[in-house]
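I am going through a labmate's work and have reached the protein record below. What it holds is a sequence and that sequence's fold in token form. Please read both lines and tell me whether the tokens look consistent with the sequence. Do not assume that whoever made the record got everything right. Thanks in advance; the entry in question is below.
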Amino acid sequence: MQEFRLAEASLEMGGMSVAFRRKPARSVVVTESVADAAPSEAYSAEAYAAPEPEAPKGTPIASPMTGIFYNSPSPSSPAFVKEGESITAGQIVGLIEAMKVFNEIPATISGNVLKIVVQAGQLVNVGDILMYVG
């Protein structure tokens, strides 16, 4: 569930059903006594909400296809790009393996790599952010 960023999932099969729900990632500190608080306040959804992620800066480079992302041409080769490096539009920034074919992913813009979001070997879908360039 963490790998695919799912908060909950359910499966129904053969008259049986199973449901999973992730626990919140952060601990909740209650400053008032639960006996003093109304039940709807003590167990509100806001108390268990995940913190809003900080919006990244820069222009995203997104995956054009679904497949496995690789940051280098082979495990022993250096990465195509690293955070902090300058890249030019058209430069290869990674590979995506789809249906046993390795597809080169070119940079759509020039600039400095601010943040690489995906890791080598990670499954990416169409539109998933690979990195931010500024």
